[in-house]
Amino acid sequence: MGIYAGDTKFVQSRCTISVVKLENSEPPQIKGQQEELCSSQDVEQLDLNQETDILILTPTYEKNEDLNCQHQKKKTQMKKLSYQLRRHMRIHTGENLFSCKECGRCFTRKLSLHMRIHTGEKPFSCKECGRSFSRVDSLIGHMRIHTGEKPFSCKECGKCFTLSCSLTDHMRIHTGEKPFPCKKCGRSFRRSSKLSVHMRIHTGEKPFTCEVCGRSFSHAKSLTNHMRIHTGEKPFSCEECGRSFSQATSLTNHMRIHTGEKPFSCEECGTIVHYIHCLKGN
After folding, report:
1. DSSP of 125-159, one letter per residue?
2. Burial of residue 142, with CB atoms counted within 10 A of its CB: 0-12 exposed, 13-18 middle, 19 or more buried
3. In this structure, are residues 208 and 222 in contact, taking their beta carbons and an 8 Å threshold?
4. N or C: which end of the chain has fewer CB within 10 A?
């Protein structure tokens, strides 16, 4: 049975959590998965750095702060700590988990947010463009598209991102980490969404269907490219001669006429050609 913290699947095999981090913690209605923006994407494993860091709680206070006030603050923090630790333990014990009657997934928190996946409810709307979201944190992340704010920066190359999950994904470029392996062929991916798309090779699933001719595709991008056959759209233009193409790859191939590039050679006779299909009859 899959156990989820919030909307996030917990797949850790061995738990070493002793204390839950409280510093800079966000309220539960803000904290959570950014499903629309991160392509549900990609946050399948519980982020231990965000949710359950191993850190001893050491609250600090101002010297002139009233002792009674200090005591109340510490008491409040300890209550929060106790709640978070008890909620985390449900992952292991299965106690007081909330089960979805629609899909059977279990959560350590109440199901109201998760149920919006099934009901389609999106109560949080962007005032700029009208796009709606099921979670307020998804709306907050989306608003950065309009404001241009990119608060998450890569320490390796300086590139900035609007979402923390985008930075997490980007960091795997530097580390080479590919934590999502295919159980069929062993190929690994940086993002769970890429693995999901890859799995269609093995399952034969083609969920994207052309409404004009009925042809189906395994990728949304493939359907987009296909639709240009029906619409006649050719958005890729050659800057040298002005000729237009429906596919980016067609423009790339065409440019070899102008550059003189011949990247394909025959292993038998050494003939060099612009296009790989020219080798078939060689």
Report:
1. E-TTT--EESSHHHHHHHHHHHH----EE-TTT--
2. buried
3. yes
4. N
| Domains of the chain by start residue, with CATH | 110-149 (3.30.160.60), 159-205 (3.30.160.60), 216-279 (3.30.160.60)
Print burial letters for 46-56: b (CB count within 10 Å at least 16), e (below 16). beeebbbeeee
pTM: 0.49
Q: Which amino acid is at 203?
A: T
Q: Is 228 left (phi over 0), alpha (psi -120 to 50) or beta?
A: alpha
Place of tokens 């499903």: 35
pLDDT in tens, 66-120: 666 666 666 666 665 565 666 666 556 655 567 788 887 877 666 788 888 889 8
Q: Which two tokens stand for residue 166?
A: 């985008």
